[in-house]
Amino acid sequence: MKAIITGSTGMVGKAVLLECIDDTRVEEVLLINRNSLNISHPKVKEVIHKDFMDFTAIKNQCKGYDICFHCMGVSVSGMSEEKYTELTYTISNQLASILFSVNPNMVFNYVSGTGTDKTEKGKIMWARVKGKTENMILNMGFKDAYMFRPGIILPERGIKSKTSWYNTFYTIAKPFFPLLIKMKSVTTTSNLGKAMINTYHYPQPLKYLEGKQINEIATNR
User: Which contacts qualify for 124-127: CB closer than 8 Å, 24 or more apart?
Assistant: First the structure.
């Protein structure tokens, strides 16, 4: 299996990358980043691409991949709907369109979030935009696609969030991790990465995957 990862400089993307490196079923990983992750591994290639509104320049480098883990995301805090839509829907649309044009038989995994509104008509702005993004990906025509909707994600393997207040929360909550992980809605960065890889090997009837489903799929081998 050959995989593309976006957002590998963030918590979720980094988690997926680490699981891909450890999983012998993954032959190659292509990272699409604005800034280098500075990682050196025989499996890993990295392409630095500054303009995420247009992926045409790296189209040929994206050929021949089996799955995409689209882990990019931005905080909605203080952001207008127009800007949030640009950074969430528009970028995802540009990426998905380019990848579908060169890899129509690809599986596409998108990191969304619990509470996303697939009707696109709700009162919560971020949920509408995420829902619009999910619908676009599901209707693109890929061989398969999954919308990952985690709630609380507990970091493992030294992974940290790029959002400072998340890290503060994790520091305070760490003593309670053993209790939190027992909750069906809670997952870990490791389980999230494993589940994403497993969607390629074990196709799922459900296309919207929340904490419980993510943890279940992570154990498939």
Answer: 125/76, 125/81, 125/84, 126/76, 126/84, 126/88
Which has more pLDDT, 160 or 115?
Answer: 115
pTM beyond 0.85: the answer is yes
DSSP 169-197: HHHHHGGGHHHHTTSTT-EEHHHHHHHHH
Per the CB < 8 A criterion, the answer to whether 91 and 27 are in contact is no
Q: Residue 114, CB half-sphere, CA atoms under 13 Å: how many?
A: 13
Task: Indicate whether 170 pLDDT > 90.
Answer: no
What number of CA atoms fall less than 13 Å from residue 37's CA on the CB side? 22
Q: How many CB atoms lie within 10 A of CB 22?
A: 14
Question: CB-based contacts of 77: which residues, under 8 Å, 6+ apart?
Answer: none
Please tell me the distance from the alpha carbon of residue 19 to that of residue 195, in angstroms, as a whole number: 10
125-138 vs 91-102: helix crossing angle, rounded to 10: 10
Question: Domains in the chain, please, with CATH?
Answer: 2-218 (3.40.50.720)
